[in-house]
Amino acid sequence: MLTRTRAIAGLAALVVLGAAPVALADGPGGDVECGKFSCRVEADDPGQADSGNAAGDSKPQGGSGASGDPWTCSYVLLSPQPPADSLDWEGHLPGDGAVYEQTCRYLDSINSIIRYQWLADPPPTAVAVDPAVLAQQAVDTMKLAGPDVASPRPAGTYLVGMPMWMWVNQSPTTYGPNTASASVGGVTVTATANVSKIVWSMGDGTVVTCTGPGTPYTAAAGKADSPSCGHTYTRTSANQAGGRYRVTATSTWSIDWLVTTGGGGQAGQLTETREAQVQIPLTELQVLN
After folding, report:
1. Cα angle for residues 108, 113, 116 (degrees, 5° grid)
2. Is the bond into 124 cis (omega within 30 degrees of 0)?
3. Which residues, other chains included, contact 248 with Cβ-Cβ below 8 Å and sequence gap of 6+?
4. For the chain, which terminal residue's Cβ has fewer other Cβ atoms within 10 angstroms, N or C?
5. Where residue 160 falls among pLDDT bands split at 50, 70, 90?
6. 113 with 192, same domain?
7. How many distinct structural domains can be found in the chain?
8. pLDDT digit string (tens) for 96-135?
């Protein structure tokens, strides 16, 4: 009896054209045999050849497991379970066993075969996947960084009593949006990170919170305050270490994640912070008589 199957690849095609065919004989449900162009799932004797496969498949010899089986399989309980009329129940009623997503990999290949499988009892290799953990793994690959401060600049000239405009350059790693995914056992979580605010500690005891990247200064603004993110110093930095104020900009990354495969649409949020520092001089305007 043939059951339904679907094959996907991690980072490459599951079956490479011209590659030798392979067969799977691991886990409940029987063999999964792959030729050059397709895969078939058969519940007959694992040793019986699939006469319907035009590629003339043959099973590989040897393997990495203790039994010589080169396939490694894992199982994830589908949530929610398929509807009662789904063929995935293989004629059983909901509640009579359960339907799992079976993921099998050949040797150390990134390629995998994924199919839905009804089982009367939970498999000993069932994987309990915490989507929040996968979301964090996805975030870890983003290489999120602190703000890329465009102003104030260490080489800039800043005066007491003159409005300072603060703004940052925007990129996926310093401001967002930044999107990445992580997968395990047939479950995939996709996370998207954006900076929701930047808190500026100005070094003079003042803290300024800005909910955007700030507005770049132009000469046309003259002595006006920044419309979105700014500060005015009231004393020089002469008594500071090195004669400069140490400004720390701390960004808050708000991260939304969603289970896009194998998890029933679960979603959540994470928060991370990153910071950057810059040291700037503040002097008084000198008036010549």
Report:
1. 140
2. no
3. 200, 201, 203, 275, 276, 277
4. C
5. very high
6. no
7. 2
8. 999 988 887 766 666 778 888 899 988 765 556 788 888 9
Contact 162, 223 (CB under 8 A): yes
Q: Which domain holds residue 58?
A: 2-119
- Among 119, 150, 175, the domain boundary falls at 119
Per-residue pLDDT tens for 174-226? 999 999 999 876 788 999 999 999 999 999 999 999 999 999 999 999 999 99
Are 77 and 205 members of one domain? no
Are 164 and 158 in contact by the 8 Å Cβ rule? The answer is yes
Contact by Cβ (8 Å): 73, 63:
no
Burial of residue 138, with CB atoms counted within 10 A of its CB: 0-12 exposed, 13-18 middle, 19 or more buried:
buried
Please, what is the end-to-end C-alpha distance for the chain in angstroms? Answer: 101
Alpha helices of the chain — where are they, by DSSP H? Answer: 131-140
Residue 123: predicted pLDDT: 78
| Cα–Cα nearest to 204, from 252, 248, 242, 155 | 248
Where does a domain end: 68, 88, 119?
Answer: 119
Give the span between the Cα atoms of 283 and 3, in whole angstroms: 78
Task: Give start and end residues of each alpha helix (H) in 123-280.
Answer: 131-140
